[in-house]
Design brief:
Blueprint lengths: L3 E4 L24 H5 L3 H20 L8 E7 L4 E7 L7 E7 L21 E12 L2 E6 L4 H6 L10 E3 L8 E2 L2 H16 L6 E5 L6 H11 L3 H20 L5 E4 L4 E3 L11 H4 L30 H14 L10 E10 L5 E8 L5 H12 L7 E3 L2 E3 L1 E10 L2
Helix pairs in contact: 2-4, 5-6
Length: about 400
């Protein structure tokens, strides 16, 4: 595919680091599990959790141990899911959801060292650390191929882990009891041949309305974050539909493409069902010469204080037309007070995204503001351009 770099989501062709078992005479008799048991903390985790996990699998009618494992984490929702299966063609089944203890940074991908951001994107476990400063930890291959293109070239950051101890400065922390389980599950999958366990880190759960609204509020004025979040949603939708891991491609500019992503879900919005009124013909006229400097500025009926109160009233009246997820916006309006004092030719200079109905309603109300005292120059009325910012707030 032109201008694409293929990113192997499950990273079957990469090499994991740390805690690799040594070979014994060229045989496979010495397993990864055996090697991990040489360390005190993993050994204790196997003793405490193996039987318990096996019973939990049996209760869910799942085959123990899982040969294939997949982890999903949701930053805003503070959740970490573990999905398992035993045959490649089978669909993944949800085994357990853990609560993520803490969150550093905000929504959005990690782009440099020291930003305290938890990464977002498509990763895999590349390290088992039995001597972690945070009890036990599973390392992720941040920066991945996309991050290396989009992040700071010299200081992209590193050392991102899922770990215990319930504290974080940019990792995914869970409790020691939970990392015991996750470490054991991952070790069994690796021991059976899954060298690269995929971990997808999403900004939100895209099936949770509260989370979606929060993300929408962040992306209203950030097109890059919006595009990134849309690609993450494509991957979320693919897995939700097929319960299989999607193939991820990377553009030369670092952007993700989710192969065969399902069409976007149509979100039912009540406002879309309303009967829209015909387009309103706004008050426009051909205005003669506009002057820059005047001896006396146009005056709103009642004066400047009355004009401020009027704008405040209008801003509150049109607040109900703000786009979904937006509570407040600043709209810059241009208009002309003609030499007869009539305000005409209203135009929005700056507003907010997807707010056509709001802007229309604002102009309709401002056109009804009444006749001004026109600007004066050398004792004669002249047309004068005005620019005003209106604060719009939801009631």
């Amino acid at each position: 595919m032109k201008n694409l770099i293929i990113y192997f989501l499950s990273a079957w062709f990469s090499i994991a680091t740390f805690a690799q078992p040594p070979s014994k005479g060229g045989t496979n008799s010495y397993s990864f599990i055996d090697y991990q048991r040489n360390f005190p903390r993993p050994s204790e985790a196997f003793q405490k959790k193996q039987d318990t996990l096996q019973k939990q699998f049996e209760a869910k009618k799942m085959e123990w141990p899982a040969k294939y494992m997949y982890v999903r984490s949701f930053k805003y929702d503070s959740q970490l899911e573990v999905w398992v299966k035993n045959n490649l063609k089978d669909k993944f089944q949800l085994f357990k959801t853990y609560k993520v203890c803490a969150l550093a940074g905000t929504l959005g991908p990690k782009r440099m060292e020291g930003d305290y951001q938890v990464p977002e994107g498509f990763y895999y476990i590349n390290e088992f650390n039995p001597k972690s400063n945070y009890y036990l930890s599973l390392g992720l291959n941040y920066p991945n191929a996309s991050d290396k293109i989009l992040s700071d070239a010299t200081r992209p950051g590193s050392a991102i882990y899922i770990h215990g101890s319930c504290v974080t400065v940019g990792c995914i922390p869970i409790t020691d009891q939970q990392i015991d389980e996750l470490y054991v599950l991952a070790a069994f999958s690796k021991s059976q041949g899954q060298d690269f366990i995929p971990v997808h880190i999403f900004p939100i759960r895209f099936d949770k309305e509260k989370s979606v609204k929060y993300l929408e509020s962040l992306t209203l004025t950030d097109n890059r974050l919006k595009d990134f979040a849309d690609r993450m949603e494509d991957a979320f939708d693919y897995f939700e539909k097929y319960k299989q891991i999607p193939v991820v491609l990377i553009r030369e500019n670092g952007g993700y493409i989710i192969n065969e992503a399902p069409p976007k879900k149509r979100k039912e919005i009540v406002e879309e069902a309303k009967i829209k009124r015909p387009p309103v013909q706004h008050r426009t006229r051909k205005v003669g010469e506009l002057v820059e400097a005047v001896h006396q500025w146009p005056e709103f009926p009642g004066g400047g204080d009355a004009f401020m109160k009027y704008l405040d009233k209008v801003g509150k009246e049109v607040g109900e037309f703000l786009p979904k997820g937006v509570k407040k916006a600043y709209v810059q309006v241009e208009f002309i007070v003609d030499k007869d004092g009539v305000p005409v030719n209203f135009k929005i200079l700056k507003g907010t995204k997807d707010a056509e109905e709001l802007e229309n309603e604002l102009i309709v109300r401002m056109e009804d503001m009444g006749t001004w005292k026109p600007a004066m120059l050398h004792g004669k009325p002249v047309a004068k351009k005005m620019i005003q910012t209106v604060t719009v707030e939801k009631p």
